[in-house]
Inverse folding.
């Protein structure tokens, strides 16, 4: 049965494709996309190693790309799909964008923003976790397993 377009699962699969690009580039495999009116307006993956920049998380790069696309610093009509729960830094940046929705795959029990509570997000931001959680977790586990050899 084909995947229905415009569902959280559909868009998370696109974010997973970005995570695969990060994996192939020997980056922590996190991918993110920004969707506005059912159109993908930004795609990104972690680039901290390539750019020698600890802030080059997929979410931050996606925010910049989406803001440039919309010619606006606000993403209040957009949804971010990201394969891993955003860290505190990324959640803070997302708060400033006033993003409408954040949808993430795998939970990050060590560094995810929910460890400090969700008050870091803008009050109008909706957040959903666990979309394709297994698939999003597997790619991360494979990456870190390969680093421990």
């Amino acid at each position: 049965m084909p995947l229905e377009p415009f569902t959280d699962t559909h868009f998370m699969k696109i974010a997973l494709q970005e995570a695969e690009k990060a994996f192939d580039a020997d980056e922590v495999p996190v991918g993110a996309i920004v969707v506005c009116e059912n159109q993908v307006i930004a795609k990104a993956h972690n680039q901290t190693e390539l750019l020698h920049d600890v802030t080059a998380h997929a979410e931050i790069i996606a925010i910049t790309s989406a803001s440039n696309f919309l010619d606006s610093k606000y993403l209040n009509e957009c949804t971010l799909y990201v394969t891993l729960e955003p860290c505190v830094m990324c959640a803070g940046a997302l708060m400033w964008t006033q993003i409408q929705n954040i949808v993430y795959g795998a939970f990050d029990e060590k560094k995810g923003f929910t460890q400090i509570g969700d008050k870091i997000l803008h009050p109008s931001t909706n957040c959903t976790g666990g979309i394709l959680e297994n698939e999003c977790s597997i790619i991360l586990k494979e990456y870190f397993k390969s680093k421990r050899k």
